[in-house]
Records
---
Amino acid sequence: MRGDYQQLVDEISAVLAAPATLEDRDFRLIAFGAHDDGTDEGTDGAAGGEGGGAGAGTGGPALDPVRTRSILHRRSTPAVRAWFEAFGIGRATGPVRIPPDPSAGVLIGRICLPVRHRGVVYGYVWLLDDGHLADLETGAGGGPPDPRIDRAMETAARIGDLLAAEARAGAELGELLRDLLTGPAVTREAARTELRARLGGAADGPLALAAVAPWALDVPDGEDGGPVPGLSALPGALAVCAVPDQGLAVLVRPRPADPAGPARAAADRLLRSPRAAGAAAGTGAPRHGLAELPRAWREALAAARAVRAEPRLGPVARWEDIGPYRMLTELPPAAGPDPAVAGLLRPEHAELARTAEVFLDCAGQAGRAAAALAIHRQTLYYRLSRVAGLTGLDLGEGEDRLLLHMALKRARL
C-alpha cells in the first residue's frame, strides 16, 4: 500500500508541477513526490512542519527552521501545527492557501489539499509554493478552480479511500489483538485463528509486544489523531489496540540483529503522544507465533510498571531487564505494606527508607552505600540503627534483609 500512496503523490506532483508531501492527520510523513523541472532543486518534502522525515529531499527552496526540525524529529511542533490548523484545514473540503509565517520559522507558503473519505479527514497533501503557484485558481474565491486543481483533488480523494481502508483494516486487526490478549479462552482462540489469516506468514514468525501505560482515551481527537494511532503512524507495527484500564498494545515483528529494537522504537514514539502523559512503556520477551502473546502482554505491562517504580529503568524497559520486579509484578495486589515496614514507609521516614534501600541495593556494603548516598559511613550506621528500631528487623540476618528489601521494592509499585 505504501507504493500506492507514492504513485498517487507523484501524480499530484506532476499535475501541479510542484513538490508534494502526503501526511496523515497527525502530521506524520507517509510519502513525498518530487517535481523534476530540469533544475537541481530537490523536493522540499515536509517543509515547514508538515511532519517531514528521512528522504524528504534536499536542495530546492530555502530551508526554513521548521522544516529542519521536521526532518530530524519526523513531526512538527504543536505551535507550527496550530499555525496550519488555524486556517481550517481540518474542516476544509477544498484547497487551502497558507501564507508564510517567519515568526514561526515557516518561510515558504503552502497549498494544502485535505485528504477526505466520506467527510472524515484522514490526512493532507502539502504543496510548497514559493510563488510559482500564486496564479493558480483554487476555487476559494467563488470562481471555478483550475482544472489541474480538480485533477489533484480527485487524486487526493483516491488517497482518502486508501487511508480509510487502511484505518478500517487496522481497527479490525486491533480488535483481534485485544481479544487475543485479554479475552476469554474461546474468544482468544477465534482471534488467534483470524489474526493468523490476516497476518499471513508474519503470524508464525518472531513477534514482540510493547505496552504504553496508562493510555488516555479521553483526549480530544484533534490532539493526536484519534484514540488509537493508525498503523501508518507506527512503521513496522502489525497491529495496535487500546486495552481499557491497562494501556496501549503494539504488536511488531523483531529484527534478527536487534530483536527488541522495533518494539522499543514504537513505544518510544508513542510516549511522545499527548495520550501518554505520565505514562511509561515496557516490552515483553519476544515470542515465536501468536500463542504466547497474552503472556508477552503481561510482561510488557509489568515492565512499564517497573519504569514507574524505578525511572532509571526507562523510558522503555525490557521485561528481561527489570530484575526483582519480574517477581514482584507477578504478586497479587496487597492490601497494604508488610507490617514490619509499615512504620518505615511513613512520609516522615522517607530518608531512612531510602537509606535502607540503597544499603540493600549495594549488597550490604557500607562503603558503597555511604558513597551512593553521599553521607559519612557513621551517618549510615546511625540511620540503619534507626531502621532496625522502627522495623524490629535484624539487618545482620539474611531473611530479615530479604523481607525489608522486597517490601521496599514492592512499595514502589
Note: The CA atoms of residues 1 and 162 lie 8 Å apart.
---
Amino acid sequence: MTSGLGNLSVRQRALVDRWLPGATVERDHSWGLVETTVLELAHAGSRFIVKAGGNDDAHIERELHAHRHWLHPWTSRGRAPSLVHGSADVKVLVTRYLPGELVLGSKHADYPGTYRQAGELLALLHAQTVVVDDDYERRENERALARFGEPHRIAAATVERLRAEIASWPTPPATLVPTHGDWQPRNWLACDGVIGVIDFGRAGMRPAATDFARLAAQEFRRDPSLEAAFVDGYGADPRETGAWHRNRCREAIGTAVWAYRVGDEGFEAQGHRMIAEALASREA
C-alpha cells in the first residue's frame, strides 16, 4: 500500500495506489489555506506530484483540462510538468515532478530575466486559441457583485462606491484566450536559470490581460524594471485602459473577500490596497 497518503480520501488513495503501487511520500507541498493536498512521491526511481482536492474542489477538473488541452507548448519544452494520470470524478491527478526552486522568496524573484522568460512562456499559452465572448463582461460583473454577499471586511461606503462603479460599466464583447489564472512567482520554478510553470487549478478562458493582474499588484509595483522585462518577453501589452480598470476592480474585490474567508490577513490587506488603488486610478 502506498504510504503517507492519509490526507487523501479512500477513493483517492486507492487510485494513487493503483497508479503508483508502493510509492512513498517524500514531501508535503500543500499550501495549507485551501483543501488541495499536494504531495511529492517517489516510485520506481522517479518522482511524481500527486494533487488531490476536497469535496468542494473545482481546481482539479480545471487543471486536468489545462493539461489535456493547453500545456503542450510548455511540456514539449520541459517547462511544465507532464500529466501521467488523472480523474476529475475522484479529484486527483499525478504529474511528473518538475525540478527547480520556487521563484517566490528566492533571488530569482528580483531578476528581470526571470520575468522576461515568464512573459515568453505566457505568450505561448495565450497564442493557442482565441474566442470572442459577448457575455464575459456581464458574467464577471455579476460575480464581483455576488462577492459582496459573502463575509468580508470591505467598508460599507467602499462597497457602495464599487457597486455604483460596476453598474456604470459597459459590457463589450471580450476576446478570450487560455490563461493560467494565477500567474506570479509563487507558481514559477527556476532550474539552472530556466523558468518552469506549475499549478493550473485556476486555468480558464479569459482576456489575456487578466494574467497580468497578480504581477501588477505585487512585483511590478515594487520594481518597474520587472514589468518592462515581462512585457518585452510577452511581446506586447494587452492591458487596454477600460477593460484593465474593470479587471483590476474585480480582482481586488475577489482578493479581499477570498483572503478573509481563508484567514490570510496579509493577502486580505493586499486586496484592500488593490481596491483603493483601482478606485484612485479611476479618479486620476
Note: The first strand starts at residue 24 and ends at 28.
---
Amino acid sequence: MDIAVTAKLVRGWVEEAGQLLRESLSNTSIVVEEKSHPSDLVTEMDRFIEAFYVEKIRKEFPTHQIIGEEGSYGEVDNMDGYVWIIDPIDGTLNYVKQKRNFCSMIALYKDGVGIFSFINDVINEDIYYAIKGKGAYCNDKQLENVTTYPLGKGLVALNTKMVMLKPTLSKKIIQEALGVRLIGSAGLEMVQVITNRVSAYVTTPLNFWDVAPGIMIASELGLKCSRTDNSPIKMLEKNPIVIANENTHQDIINIMKKTSNIDV
C-alpha cells in the first residue's frame, strides 16, 4: 500500500462525507433514535455516513478489518493487519440539537499503530489529519508541535461524564488550571489540544472509535496520551484518557494519583 496515495484517496471521501453532512442539516425529517439513554442518540445520517465509508473501504481494500460505531462488519478482536476505525458523527447530540460542534472521523491502523487519521470539523470545513512520520495538518497547513507547559498555564477540557461522575477530581483539576471548556465531541475536544487551544483533555471511559483518530494525530505532534492511571491506551477497549502536552499530562497524572480514592 502506498500510504500517501491512500491518504489522498481517503481525504476525498472525508470531504464528500462532510458535504453530505452539511446538506443534511436542512433536512427536518431526519430520523433520530435513542440508544442507551436520552442523550445517547443515533440518526439515519450516522448510519448513512458510516455505510458510505464502509462501501468505499470494501471496494478498495476488501481484506481489511473495519470497526464502526454504528455497525458490525465481522468480529474484530485484534489489531492485526490493517484496521479501519470509523466514527461517522462524533457529537450526534450536538448535530441534532445545535447543528454544529460535531465532527466525522476515520483512521487507519496497521498492527496497532496509526498510519493516518482524519477529523473533519464539518461546519467550519476544517479537516485535521496526520500521516505517520509526515506530521499533522489542518487542511494544507502543517501544524506545529505543541509546546510543553504546566497545567496552571492553560485551559483544560473535560467530558460531561467526568464532571458528573468525578466531581471532586474534576474540581481539583479545574482549580489548578486557568479554566475549563466542554464541547461534547471527543474528536473536537482533542482538536483543541492538538491546536494548543486547551492544554489537556481528560475523560471517563470512551469507546476506541472516539479516541483512535485523535490519538494518531496527537502522536505526530509530540503529545502525551494515556489512560488516567498513566498506563498505555488499550486497543479495542473503552479508555479513560488524558491527552496533553508533556508537563500538563504529568501534572494531571499527579493529581490522579493523589486523589485515586475519591469519587468512587
Note: The longest helix spans residues 3-24.
